[in-house]
Known about the structure:
CATH topology of the largest domain in chain A: Umud Fragment, subunit A
Helix content of chain A: 10-25%
Shape of chain A: elongated
Largest sheet of chain A: 9 strands, mixed
Structural class of chain A: alpha+beta
Strand order of the largest sheet of chain A: 5-4-6-7-12-8-9-10-11
Oligomer: homodimer
CATH superfamily of the largest domain in chain A: Umud Fragment, subunit A
Strand content of chain A: 35-45%
Amino acid sequence: MSERVSEKQQQILQFLREFIGEKDYPPSIRDIQEGCRISSTSVVDYNLKRLEEKGFIRRDREVSRAIELLEGGERRARTVRVPVLGKIAAGRPIPMPPEHLTPESYDEFVEVTDRQTGGRDNVFALRVEGNSMVDALINDGDIVLLQPTQSCDDGDMVAVWLKRENETTLKRLYHEGGRVRLQPMNAAMQPFYTDLDNVEVQGRVLAAIRNW
Amino acid sequence: MSERVSEKQQQILQFLREFIGEKDYPPSIRDIQEGCRISSTSVVDYNLKRLEEKGFIRRDREVSRAIELLEGGERRARTVRVPVLGKIAAGRPIPMPPEHLTPESYDEFVEVTDRQTGGRDNVFALRVEGNSMVDALINDGDIVLLQPTQSCDDGDMVAVWLKRENETTLKRLYHEGGRVRLQPMNAAMQPFYTDLDNVEVQGRVLAAIRNW
DNA sequence: TAGGCAGCAGAACATATGTGCCGACCAGGG
DNA sequence: CCCTGGTCGGCACATATGTTCTGCTGCCTA
């Protein structure tokens, strides 16, 4: 068996992508047959077997339309709906999610890939309000993805509430003896030092998204 | 018919989400029956009809597993694979995509939702290298999504090549008489004025993504 | 030239799966 | 009490759909 993907297999792969992209459910073998003008279902089956061997797709036997498209050996990314819990601003603590996030309880969502959430659940999103986060290179209107947590490792990008300053900020956090160093994203800016008691980690920042 | 979504329908909706999230293809009526411990296929069918009337799903009749999940009245977002054509840096022109983007010709991809590409095709991505884009609040390592274009409307965020300065930059562009004003994202920074001949619009910036 | 193998055609076959029909149950209204 | 509409159970039926078998056609090689 050639390791190469034959013309026909390439065509089937392309058809799979288009079909799924259009309908949101995979095609049947006979759909593929028609779509690629293949003369027999057995040919489709044959080539699907080859594609499966080569790792381009995964099939569940005996189950109709059970073709999963893999890309680059990996599972295709899936979209997840992340609830937008509210706004994040310098002068306000972060609105925290309730114990159990139920997708139904929120009106607003952003749709991101599960690569961006790292597959974690209970991720939530906040819309940045104002220009107070520019030192983290985050602008008014940006969306940040957060994972609720109280603890974090050194160097993690976290959202912290500074009790004395009454302020929310996004910084990299490093423990240094009894103190913590809060390092702005923008390398040109000076780090901020404070003591452990003054900081309250609200969440780990996973990603930031800006749309124009 | 009650406009309300009954307990059972809620349960089916939830099951649909989980099933599709797990398998990448929709469940059959009998899958739903088992998954939701429903006593008969006709009950599933009945409730699917109700859900379709209410706009939560769309079904293709006679076709097995042809259930599309809608969310908030809209189609669920799909992931698209955007090729990463290269790096973007201040001192280099932007690597432009060839005439016809074929998904197979690139090694590296980022997966984003089609909401982020605005459904446009021939979108491509670049990885930002260096800190020269901080005035656009874009950092080393960020990913920017671009759509190839030579022309743009006033106020569009664009990637431009400044011929005299030999430099690539991301700015909002405004035509002002015979000149153009390039406005940095960061409101605190001064705009840059130059003449029309000096700028070469390479693409419209659609989105920026940062992952920690 | 015979044999082996990848790929293809065609058709029969076995299930997987959507649909229709009939009756039961229940709550509300006349 | 009966009627009606919404919901459910059970089941048979038609067809949508994956699988398999047999044979054919090139092509390569011992």
